[in-house]
Amino acid sequence: MSKTVTENKEWTNIDYTNTSAYRTVKAWNKIAGIYEVGGNGGQSVQGGVPHDEFAQLKRLRKLDAVVKPEKGPVQKVITHMARQIVRQPDEKGLLVPKECLTVQGEFKGVDWADMEVAMTFYEGWNKKPVMDKVYKTNKRFDSETGEDLGKIDVRNTVIEYFYELPKHAAKRKKFIDSIIEKANGTFAENINYYYKELGPGNHPLTSKRDGTFSYEQFTECSIEEMKQLSDRGGGEKGPGYYLKDGKLHDKDGNPVQSRGVYQ
User: Fold this and answer.
1) Per-residue pLDDT of the chain (263 residues; tens, 9 = 90+)
2) In what order do the strands lie in the sheet with 192-198?
3) In a domain, 145, yes or no
4) What DSSP line would sit under 92-120, residue for residue?
5) Residue 105's domain spans which residues?
6) Across-strand partners of 250?
7) Which residues pair with 213 in a beta bridge?
8) Partners of 243 in the beta sheet?
9) Is residue 2 a part of any domain in this protein?
10) What angle do CA 248, 251, 252 make, to 5 degrees?
């Protein structure tokens, strides 16, 4: 008699296991052995799981439970994609630049009352705890016993990126297209495509953003070409003008004529 094996899944209708929220919470579970939420503002307090990701995962799990596929299609609609250079430590601890992709969108479905329900998701990055010895006071050793008073706990939080883009143009396009094609309800022409320069701490939500690029530019241009276009007024959807030395120029670098006089 054959044995039937039932796959143990954490989700039923919506696969949220690659989202930033899920991967962040799981990182705290696995690395720090912590399952409780930390403080507000998205930062962990006393080693707790970051509040924002903890709360978002809770909402995604609720959405997964209430959508009814028999009432309407369960969709993963990608609304934004961005390319950027990030610097992350290799196995030797050296910061190495690599180009990564981040994704934003909505999971959508219909609930038992025939109402459309949705929830935002992020992919391509997650927070990860850095463990080290932490001292609650300035006192490091017990003066009587010599005991080290430090405890291994979450010392810092870093941003980890996991969608590394191939440098070869054809492979890069194939990688991006594969993500779009797997997202039911997503159409390439409806996505907003961005070039980003990351802000402090490599955080994806604190960065320079240029959303003027077409799908063709996003998939075919190198990251260096995207930067050049952004510095010169943006991509295909941009205004095509930029300031240089206090003067307005077009995409080709020519001064823009106004009222019969070059600026």
Assistant:
1) 334 434 558 999 999 999 999 999 999 999 888 888 876 544 444 568 999 999 999 999 999 999 999 999 999 999 999 999 998 877 787 888 999 999 999 999 999 999 999 999 999 999 999 876 776 777 777 667 767 666 767 888 889 999 999 999 999 999 999 999 999 999 999 999 999 987 665 666 656 889 999 999 999 999 999 999 998 888 888 776 544 555 545 556 666 665 443 33
2) 116-123, 95-110, 75-89, 192-198, 207-213
3) yes
4) TS-EEEEEEEEEEEEEEEE-TTS-EEEEE
5) 20-262
6) 241
7) 193
8) 248
9) no
10) 100
CA neighbor of 217 nearest in space, from 230, 206, 204, 208: 230
The separation between CA 242 and the C-alpha centre of its own chain, rounded to angstroms, equals 29
* Residue 217 to residues 53, 184, 191, 226, Cα–Cα distance (Å): 32, 23, 13, 8
Size (the chain), residues: 263
Residue 10 inside a domain? The answer is no
Gyration radius of the chain's alpha carbons: 23
5 part of a folded domain: no
Q: How is residue 224 written in tokens?
A: 């260096």
Total number of domains constituting the chain: 1
Whether the CB-CB separation of 25 and 58 falls below 8 Å is answered with no
